[in-house]
Amino acid sequence: MKMNIRQYQRGAATLVATVVLVLLASLTVLVVNKSSIGEQQRSGIDARSKEVYAAGNAALRYGFYQLMIQYNDNNLATPFGSADGTAIAGATALIDYDPDDDAVTDADGDSDDRFVQGIDSFMLDSRITYTLITDEDEHPAIIEVTAPVVGATESHVQKTISMRVLREDLGSGSTFAAPPLVVEGCIPPGSALGNPKVISDEIAVATIQGDSDDPDCLDPGHIDIVGGGDVGEPTNGNPDTTLMEAMFGSNDAGDDIKIASDLQAAWPIEDRTVFYVTATSPWHDDVGSLASPVILFFAEESLCPSMNGGPVIYGLVYFEAPADGCDNPGSGAATIFGTVAYEGNLNKINANIVMVQVDFGDGGANAGFAKVIVPLPSSWRDFAP
User: Fold this and answer.
1) Residue 50 and residue 336: Cα distance in Å, rounded?
2) Which of 166, 196, 239, 301 is buried most, with the most CB atoms less than 10 Å from its CB?
3) Position 64 pLDDT exceeds 50
4) Which residues pair with 167 in a beta bridge?
5) What is the Cα–Cα distance from 288 to 132, expressed in whole angstroms?
């Protein structure tokens, strides 16, 4: 019997080709699966990386807020254990991060808080740490806030995030050392009525953006200036500077003032140094002293209320107003030792208000004055030194 060699050869070739195709298909599946697994791993790492950053940044913000509270609690003792705010550079302090009150204390007495962020649960490794970069009594002082975060279910997911902040006194060099009456714009003719009085031997009435050479911009009207003080003197050389920036050093100072006022809301009125007022009713309380001036900030929604009943105020009285100024600001019959400042134009000043020039200097350098916590630009980092 004669065998068909060629037929067998074709069959063998077909078998070999089939095996090769199967191997190639298997390799392709393995490569695809490996790529898929790798992509899942990368996605998981990316997701957890974002979560740990979010968790760390949340802890940092909590640390900033707690620092603000501890420096505005009507207690001269500071977070660094100093009774008078004079801890030296390098001093450290720790606080627990436990906004939801579920911290667990281990056998060593350390408190770890687990909190949910995305698909993993994270906890603070140890606690939020504060480190003084400068001496505490510097103005401003620099403090580094550090938040080490680690995954509770996946401990390899961890990150230490830190940022430096400035702890400074609320306000600027002009807050307690400005002329008795300061307007952002002008005092139009006919606006000063009644018997307002300014006592000053330097600059009595000043403008931030107005034209000091225009008599129609700063018309003293019925203002009685005692002591020979000047009227119409500009307070700076930049007409774009706002009143808030000139008086407090920042256009965002209103937010800091509100926070400081809220933190002091439960204090006795004689201990308070910051008042953020939104009520439209007249102000009638005596506040401040020569040794402890205050910031009395009337927010825009208060509509520039009057000060009735003869209150005596030491410090800065600031009226926030719409762009064109308050339509009917009522000055009342208060006596202010320090400064009265109006945003926009002062369209009306009347009654028997008395404004007396007093230079309190830095005013807020004492340990009991309101402090603000300001993040230091470019100091954020996500690694340990």
Assistant:
1) 53
2) 196
3) yes
4) 141, 373
5) 31
